[in-house]
Structures
1.
Amino acid sequence: MTATTDTQPEDLRNRMVDRIDAAGYLRSASVERALRTVPRHLFVPNASIEDAYADKSITTKPGGPGGRPASCASVPTVVAMMLGQLDARPGDRVLEIGAGTGYNAALLAELVGETGQVTTIDIHPDVTEQARRALEATGYGRVRVLTGDGALGAPDQALFDHIIVTVGPWDLPPGWRDQLAPGGRLVVPLHWRGQARSVAFVHQDGVLRATDSQLCGFIPMIGDGQDGERTGQIADDVALYFDRDQPIDPAALHGILAQPATTVWSGASVVPNESTDLIWPRLTGAEPGTCRFAAEPAAAEAGLCNPAFTYRSPALVDGDSLAYLTLRGPDPDATERRWELGAIGHGPAGTRLAERLCEQIRAWDRDRTAQPTITAYPAGTPDEDLADGVVIDKQFIRLVVSN
Ligand SMILES: C[S@@+](CC[C@H](N)C(=O)[O-])C[C@H]1O[C@@H](n2cnc3c(N)ncnc32)[C@H](O)[C@@H]1O
């Protein structure tokens, strides 16, 4: 019996790339060529060949923070999307933080070619040992694999034309900016106000200016300065996630969901699978109290809350009041299946907060592709030198977001 072509790695790989393309995540011919070339299955030897080319992450080392993996191969669409943001070219010098399996480093080696240089760092020695072995076995032994805290970068190899971070940091350590050439690009899945987005920053005059941001999810970066996210329960199965610079006290909101609610509707609606993801970052550019409302399905089933997205809905908090994103629909009599976006408010200022959330939904609705302006200044930059916008103070940066 002859093997069907369906299970050949090359065919599965090409189908994976076709799916990524159909989903709109392929921005350049060079990234496409790299994805069609690098044998992903050889970087995840314990996964089946089908899983290696499915659009999912593959855990390679369990036991990370919060029950998440300590290491994994990232979802291929996210890998493709971030490489598109990075725009690495032949001859470039690239640093990757989060070597993991070595797969992305091999893609980077394809993109920069023999004249370029790729350095990748991981904090776990067993992970770097495995990545080094896989890179050598697949012909990418020229990638430099270092063990250490990626927050420090690789000062001995700097300057870099690009830095790509494939683990989720809360902050941007100064070494990344300092080791990036002027005009160089940093692509990083940054966490702020309860959300994570892959932000493409360009280094200009000591400041990082975003040119693009895309929804993503990553395992949290471990190490100094990365524990700035706070969380607290406001009911048995409902928590808020926010940043340490926000005066949010979950204890002051405990039990608020059992109090009377006001629902405000925005008039903006979406069809199935239509993205609403830019509402959240735009909200962070208008409302200092933006955070994440995270419910277990049990809380929604019990009628305690009705968030638009159970585990991840944007919310606004002001003192002892709260509003969060909700949805209604579809109308059974309508010809098109649409869901209207709105907000549910609780507490003394709940109605006003729900109205403010709806104002931002309407602003998003007027131009659904508009990205907020995001700039990262070094910590200590005086207020008068910052652009206008909401200031998010972290340990190493002052992030300014505006619409
Ligand atoms: C999602 S995986 C990276 C996937 C990888 N790029 C690939 O192609 O397989 C994230 C990696 O970041 C690493 N990591 C976490 N904190 C780190 C830190 N402070 N410095 C360097 N690596 C870190 C983890 O050990 C893990 O291997």
2.
Amino acid sequence: MAISEMTPTTSGSGEHATIGADELRSFARDGYVIARHFFSPQEVASITSEVTRLHRDNLDLPGCFKRVAIEDATDPLQAYPRMMHPHRQSGVLQSFLLHPRLGVALGQLLGEPAIATQSMFYWKPAGARGQALHQDNFYLKVHPGTCLAAWVAIDPADRENGGLNVVPGSHDMDLFCPEEADPEVSFTREFVPVPSGLVPVAPDLAAGDVLFFGGNLIHGSEPNRTTDRFRRSFICHYIGESARELSRWYRPIYRFDGSEVTVDDATGGGPCGDVVVGGPH
Ligand SMILES: O=C(O)CCC(=O)C(=O)O
């Protein structure tokens, strides 16, 4: 998708365009912050309509997703797999990855201009497994600094449908070498236990809310235990412009004006030693 094909969106909730002083303080303290009503219902509908089109067309989109027919699926995630980098398939989604309002908020949280490295779309239908607790910078391998996620709720997210769990305080810790996740409840393999003394929280989110969190924050989700509700989310990852290294899986990466940036490939094995673990996230 050429940047020139992007569809800019300018509408939205003006009074929520930036992160306030209280939110900046709670981000520093807890490692995450929720911006309520960040995207308007119309903007959420634009994202939904694009991913629904990609899902319906089911073209062979290498590196994005490939689904099986609902009637043939033995696991709900086979019919609704997560989409990787859907912004590479849709100008509308690219315009949300690089949404000017996100650029402002991310700049405030990072303390410098943000660069977009990744988008994902999680459908998480009723009965789907979750994603075990983990830290994003284990995968992105940003150095110096860390990555920053903008987790956009497309549906209301809560404990029942497998909303996001976060572990405040873990953002100040190093990366952990993960253990093996339970495949009954997680579709990913790595699992980072809650460090002693810390307590996970599970904030309820409304559609259009954005949960911002840093790359060392331990987070994940439980299965969707409802029988009739999706828990869809559009998840974007960013780095600050002073970052010098990033895992090669995330190229190409963009400034908010749409220009491409190059950073060096990450080196070193990370918290598990010399063994190179952690592919794309
Ligand atoms: O939305 C989820 O269930 C997990 C998402 C996540 O862990 C992530 O974006 O890193």
